Amino acid sequence: MYLRAAEIREYCNIEKFNATCDADSVIVMDYAFYGRQRVGRCVQNMDTRGKCGVDVLTVTDSRCSGRRRCAIKLPDDEMYAMNACRESVSHLYAAYSCVTGNTSLIM
C-alpha cells in the first residue's frame, strides 16, 4: 500500500536529495534522472545546450529503496560519471513512494 504518491521533484546541483518514510514504511524509488531536463527551480534557461542527461534509477534504487531514510549529496560522483552533459550543470529529478512494510519485503 502506498502511503505517499510519487511526485517528481527537482534537486539542484548543490543540494541534497532526502527521502524519508514513516516508521512502518520504506522507500521505493519511482524515478531518477540526472542532467538538464526542463526549465524549473534549478534551470531557468535551457539555451542552446538543451536537454541532456541519463536515467539514474539503478543508482538511487540501490542506495534508497528498502530503507526508511536516504540522502544523496549533489553533485554525486557516480551520477556525474554516467552523465552525457558534463559541459553544463546537472540536477537530479527524482520521485519516490513510501510503501508499508520492511526491508525484507522490498528486497
Summarize the structure in words.
It is a single chain. The protein is of the alpha+beta class and 107 residues long. The protein has one domain: Jelly Rolls, CATH 2.60.120.740. The chain is 17% helix and 39% strand. The protein contains 3 helices and 7 strands, in the order βββββαβαβα. The radius of gyration is 14 Å and the shape is elongated.
Please report the distance between the alpha carbons of the first and last residues.
16 Å
Helicity, in percent? 10-25%
Q: What's the structural domain tally?
A: 1
Give average pLDDT, whole number: 83
Question: Architecture, CATH level 2?
Answer: Sandwich
CATH level 1 name: Mainly Beta
The largest sheet, given as strand count, sense and whether it forms a barrel, is: 5 strands, antiparallel
Q: Could you give me the name of the CATH homologous superfamily?
A: Rhamnose-binding lectin domain (RBL)
- Which residues sit in consecutive blocks of at least 5 with pLDDT less than 50? none
Element order: H for helix, E for strand: EEEEEHEHEH
Reported by name, the CATH topology is Jelly Rolls
The count of β-strands is: 7
Envelope shape: elongated
SS strand fraction: 35-45%
Number of helices: 3
Main structural class: alpha+beta
Radius of gyration: 14 Å
Write the layout of secondary structure elements.
Elements: E1 2-4, E2 9-11, E3 16-20, E4 25-36, E5 52-55, H1 57-64, E6 69-73, H2 77-82, E7 91-100, H3 103-106
Antiparallel strand pairs: 1-7, 2-7, 3-6, 4-5, 4-7
